[in-house]
Amino acid sequence: MAGQTFRWREASLPDLVSVSEIQLVVHEAFPEDGHVLADRLELSPEGCFMLEVGGVAQGYVLSHPWVRRAPPSLNSMLGEIPAAADTWYIHDLALLPETRGSGAGGNVVPLRYGEDAVYMERALA
């Protein structure tokens, strides 16, 4: 992947096919159901991103507001964001094996500061 450009972009519902495929590689022992992944994306689209390298999905981030030090259970529906949410919870940051070590994981900041989300793009070394 050296010399290729990676790009983090906002995720959308059609990306859930790629998210499901990536999680089966990255988290084969702990895959989550499609409706659970959709729940995260629908509740907090501003915290969900796809990593593309050469236009091909290579990773994703699912994050959402939540209550500090009280993470939700894996493979469970949230239904809603708690009114007492006081932090951004990174539910999952998953990169396919060939993308690990590229710096891509450290260059996504799916946290919101005020109304501004951060998107990063750079060339892989």
What does the largest sheet look like? 5 strands, antiparallel
Oligomer: single chain
Question: Beta-sheet strand percentage?
Answer: 25-35%
Taken in chain order, the helices and strands follow as: EHHEEEEEE
Shape summary: globular
Number of strands: 7
Averaging pLDDT over every residue, what do you get? 84
How helical, in percent, are the residues?
Answer: 10-25%
Strand order of the largest sheet: 4-3-2-1-7
Task: Summarize the structure in words.
- The chain is of the alpha+beta class.
- The chain has helices spanning 16-26, 34-43, and strands at residues 5-10, 48-53, 56-66, 87-95, 112-113, 116-117, 121-123.
- It has a 5-stranded antiparallel beta sheet, covered by helices on one side. Strands 5-6 form a two-stranded antiparallel ribbon.
- Strand 5 (112-113) and strand 6 (116-117) form a beta hairpin.
- Residues 110-125 have low confidence and may be disordered.
Summary tags:
125 residues, alpha+beta, five-stranded antiparallel β-sheet, two-stranded antiparallel ribbon, 2 helices, 7 strands, 31% strand
Topology:
Layout: E1 5-10, H1 16-26, H2 34-43, E2 48-53, E3 56-66, E4 87-95, E5 112-113, E6 116-117, E7 121-123
Antiparallel strand pairs: 1-2, 1-7, 2-3, 3-4, 5-6
Quickly describe the structure.
With 125 residues, this protein is α+β, with helices and mostly antiparallel strands. The chain has 2 helices and 7 strands. The protein is globular and about 45 Å long.
